[in-house]
Specification:
Number of helices: 25
Strand content: 25-35%
Helix content: 25-40%
Shape: extended
Structural class: alpha+beta
Radius of gyration: 39 Å
């Protein structure tokens, strides 16, 4: 039975039993910061089990894609070494949310395995928690399993809990007997059963979690009012049993991936050889890479992106071990897309992005891996000695050659070496601190630390930000810092935006009776926004509290230009995801009054057509004059409605949502225009790469876009004036000039090959020497540079025989140089260019030398050049032995 058939049979069976078939949730948990990746089928139902969500049904069935390659659940190092470990796997699961419990869960599992899949009941063994008498009795009663095939284990194997506190309960597992033929049918003791399980002779196929308790902080278990069921069955393991193969990699699921790897490497997969490990790593890692990229994870140096990059680079290293020096994993990833997109359409939908990103990551690592492996060989030479690789060297492999720590650890273990992980972490932390210090040194803004002390006239009261609705307001001064630099104020009602989410701080002015304060920056101090700037007037007039009334005014035009750019950033994000694909995720931004900058995940430069399409979409959204709506709502509600939350950002329970109907919905604390039409115009000014897999767009809006276009028009007018043509004709005139230049360059090249136009100015002398007629050319020529003269000399030597040429070349700067060229057949007769140029140059007080066939010399006295050229024939005769 094929894997695809097993998956579908499972879903169909439980659907017939009243379960709602639910699609697999993404590998990135939508609303769970406690998990790096979805690692079990129950993850998408955690809130249901916790009583925080009602889905409208109380039974569900899924085939859930899972990854275990980082954090607590990490099978990365075992992949390829064992028959069952994978970074990516599919978990079949059926769930009851307060509906059926142990009896039905046991009945469903047994019926599906023994009747639907026709597994031999005598090869199925059961484990239960040692306290769970009820489950043990039900296995005998409902499934007819003999008591001697039911084993009782402890918490480590047969008790499940979601966290230290909360829902938990005992487990019951179904194991398949994989022992050799003589042992089949025998009943092992509990000790032998456990040992055989560790050795892989009893294979766990199914795990039933009976969620029936709530553990409090003291560890006490309280019965849940609505006990639930969470079961999971490994699809790959079931397939290996049904197909009668010894390893998951021998099933029909993995064969296409192993074949793709073999085709790329150029030799067949050998499961029993050492190389077989590398083939299996490629087959396994290709699935993780394809699915993680499809679900929006992007290779990076931290978090989920770092795990993905580790998986990619581990695969590249194994391809390298197989002799591949070019992208290989991408070939296997393409096979994954081809074979699995019918079950998971997102693979085909994001095909181009997946393949492009995989190939790009492979190429980047291949560019450094050879140097890294050479360095590793120096640090850990093969041999019996072993040793420890220092943390500094491990960090160098990471920082210079891109080797993740776990890859270095794996390679070190293969050669019997240890790795100084603590030293590596210290080196990594030092680098981070240096980076922070460098950033701080280049940051000219005022930091919070500079404003901790020096406050006077501090009044009580809370600060309120009113800048979302007001740019000018009457307010009171709460605190003053005027006696030290930098000077600062804190206001009760504050309209000044504090830099956050990429949007820069507001600037403006605060005025009171007899004083004013120019605001140039806003800094958070003690949880409040402090205005940094310059005080004007009499300090004695500045009061705080109810006596410190003032008017705070944000520079309106500057704020509005900033709002234009911020709202345009949201439109740009939406347009990029539409044009380039849903893999586009914001990686950083700057929103200032004069421009916006947007960094996003994408592997290759945008084409001119893509830039035009993105620009067009943003402008259409502007001219449609959409209403920009803002709302405060619960984080969970916002995400469930489709609001985009940025990876790595921390959000509170209550969030601010900025919605542009039919275009964009994002979590954002910044200020925005009220209608998109206020933006006016949007123009992309540049596109560039800033890091591996990260592109940057810079753009301008409104007045900035108009000024940008005006500047372009002015430059076009200047070009048109130089070309002496109207601006509208400038492009065509430029094309004509480029064609003419090309023609002239071609003509010049032809002239160089033919010796140049000045060749006809050379005087020719012929004389007899050593029984042959010798031809000597001597004279002057003009040339662009020495290369011109050499090119003409090479052509002369190629076309002539028994000939020599002496040339006095004059260059554009007025400098004159002598050159001599001699054909090969004269070299044996005794005429060499270096000897000829030496004697001729001496007549003009020059010196020179070179090779036998070509030489050059300086001209000491230009007035003697004619005499030197005239003497050339006699000098040549003398060098040939006199001549006739």
């Amino acid at each position: 039975m094929k894997v695809s058939d097993i998956r579908q049979r499972f879903l169909d069976y439980f659907q017939e039993k009243g379960h709602s078939v639910q699609p697999s949730s993404p590998l990135v948990p939508q609303d769970d910061q406690t998990l790096l990746f979805t690692n079990a089928g129950m993850v998408q139902f955690k809130k249901v089990f916790l009583g925080q969500e009602d889905l409208g049904f109380d039974r569900a069935v899924t085939s859930q894609k899972c990854v275990r390659a980082g954090g607590k659940h990490n099978d990365l190092e075992q992949v390829g070494q064992t028959a069952r470990h994978h970074t990516f796997f599919e978990m079949l699961g059926n769930f009851s949310f307060g509906d059926y419990f142990k009896r039905d869960a046991i009945a469903y599992a047994w019926e599906f395995l023994t009747e639907e899949l026709a597994l031999d009941p005598d090869r199925l063994f059961i484990t239960v928690h040692h306290t769970d008498d009820e489950a043990a009795e039900l296995w005998e009663e409902v499934a007819g399993v003999p008591a001697e095939r039911i084993y009782r284990l402890g918490d480590k194997d047969n008790f499940w809990q979601m966290a230290d506190t909360g829902p938990c309960g005992p487990c019951s597992e179904i194991h398949f007997d994989m022992r050799p033929e003589p042992l089949l049918g025998t009943i092992p003791s509990q000790e032998d059963f456990e040992e055989a399980g560790e050795a892989g002779e009893f294979l766990e196929l199914w795990n039933l979690v009976f969620m029936q308790f709530d553990r409090d902080e003291s560890g006490t278990l309280h019965p849940l009012p609505a006990p639930s069921i969470d079961t999971g069955a490994g699809l790959e393991r079931i397939a290996s049993v049904l197909q009668g193969v010894p390893s998951n990699y021998d099933t029909d699921l993995f064969q296409p991936f192993l074949d793709a790897a073999a085709d790329a490497v150029g030799r067949p997969y050998d499961r029993d050889g050492q190389e077989g490990i590398s083939y299996r790593v490629l087959a396994d890692h290709a699935r993780s890479v394809a699915f993680l990229l499809a679900d929006g994870v992007f290779p990076s140096s931290e978090g989920r992106g770092y795990v993905l990059r580790r998986i990619l680079r581990r695969a590249v290293r194994h391809a390298w071990l197989l002799g591949r020096r070019e992208p290989t994993l991408v070939t296997v990833v393409e096979a994954v897309i081809r074979e699995m997109s019918s079950a998971y359409p997102e693979l085909e939908e994001r095909r181009d992005h997946i393949l492009r990103t995989t190939r790009g990551e492979e190429e980047r690592f291949l560019a450094t891996i050879e140097g890294g492996l050479d360095r590793f060989d120096e640090l850990a030479p093969a041999g019996p000695e072993g040793g420890t690789i220092s943390g500094a060297e491990v960090f160098r492999l990471y920082d210079t050659y891109g080797f993740p720590l776990d890859l270095t650890e794996l390679m070190a273990r293969e050669r019997g070496y240890d790795v100084d992980v603590e030293g590596f972490e210290e080196a990594l932390q030092e680098q981070r601190e240096r980076s922070r210090a460098d950033r701080a040194a280049s940051d000219l803004s005022v930091g919070e630390d500079a404003l901790q002390d020096g406050w006077t006239e501090v009044a009580t009261g809370d600060q309120v930000f009113v800048g979302y609705t007001l740019s000018e307001t009457a307010t009171e001064v709460l605190a003053v810092r005027l006696r030290e630099e930098p000077q600062a104020l804190i206001l009760r009602d504050n309209p000044f935006y504090l830099e956050s989410g990429g949007q820069v701080s507001d600037r403006g002015r605060v005025e009171g009776e007899g004083w004013a304060f120019e605001v140039r920056d806003v800094v958070r101090v003690g949880g409040r926004s402090a205005l940094v700037g310059t005080f004007e007037g009499d300090p004695g007039q500045l009061k705080t509290g109810s006596d410190g009334s003032a008017v705070a005014r944000v520079f309106g035009r500057v704020r509005h230009d900033t709002e234009r750019n911020h709202t345009a950033t949201h439109l740009l994000h939406a347009a990029l995801r539409d044009v380039l694909g849903e893999h586009v995720v914001q990686r950083g931004s700057l929103v200032a009054p004069d421009r916006l900058r947007f960094d996003f995940s994408h592997t290759s430069p945008m084409s001119a057509e893509q830039i035009d399409e993105v620009e067009g979409q943003v402008n259409r959204a502007i001219w449609d004059d959409h209403l920009v709506e803002t709302d405060q709502m619960a984080y969970d509600e916002a995400v469930s409605q489709g609001a985009m939350a940025l990876f790595g950002e921390k959000y509170g329970d209550e969030v601010r949502v900025v919605r542009i109907p039919e275009v964009s919905m994002e979590l954002c604390g910044g200020t925005h225009v009220r209608h998109t039409g206020e933006i006016g115009l949007f123009k992309i000014s540049s596109e560039s790469g800033v890091a591996a897999g990260v592109r940057r767009l810079e753009a301008v809006t409104g007045p900035g876009a108009f000024a940008f276009m005006e500047s372009k028009a002015e430059r076009l007018a200047e070009v048109a004036e130089v070309l002496r043509t109207p601006p509208e004709n400038a492009p065509r005139r430029a094309e004509q000039l480029m064609v003419e230049r090309s023609e002239l360059e071609s003509l010049l090249a032809d002239l160089r090959k033919g010796g140049g136009a000045s060749s006809s100015e050379l005087d020719v002398t012929e004389f007899e020497a050593n029984g042959a007629t010798i031809r000597l050319e001597a004279g002057r020529m003009k040339a662009m540079d020495a290369d011109d003269v050499r090119a003409a000399g090479d052509q002369f030597r190629s076309d002539a025989s028994s000939s020599a040429r002496i040339v006095a070349a004059e260059f554009a700067d007025g400098k004159q140089t002598l050159f001599a060229f001699v054909t090969d057949d004269l070299l044996g007769a005794g005429l060499r260019a270096d000897a000829l140029i030496r004697d001729v140059a001496a007549v003009a007080d020059g010196r020179g030398g070179g090779r036998p066939h070509m030489a050059q010399a300086s001209v000491g006295d230009p007035a003697k050049l004619d005499s030197a050229l005239a003497a050339a024939p006699e000098i040549a005769r003398a060098l040939l032995g006199g001549g006739e």
